[in-house]
Amino acid sequence: MKDENESAVRLSLEEIAMQQLEYTKKQYQLTKFLSGCTAMILVVVIVASTMFYHRFNAIYKDLVVINANMKDITTDLADLDLKGLNERLVNTLEASETAMGTVSEAISRVDLDELNKSIQNLQRALDPLVRVLGALGGGR
Fold this sequence. Notes:
Layout: H1 2-79, H2 82-109, H3 112-138
């Protein structure tokens, strides 16, 4: 009976050793798979960071240029004499308004009926000259 118990214990130890060996093989395969996945993830992260680095670097350079331009614009705006410019514009508008008033007064003083009569008289006076020039020009 002692032999049977020992052989049963032995078998179970051999079975346990075999199961452990199977588990160890599975663990090794899983470790290889996870190492491959980790390497692939690392490659993807490196490629993505390289791409994003160049894009972010270009954006950063653009932001530096924009910042410099904004400083120049701010300086130019600070140097402008907006109050003086406003006064000059007001003066120009007032002068234009005065000139328009003078022009409108001059136009209102013109007698259109008299102007029409003068134009008709001029046409009548030039009519014989036009005929003579037309006859000279028509002979060509």
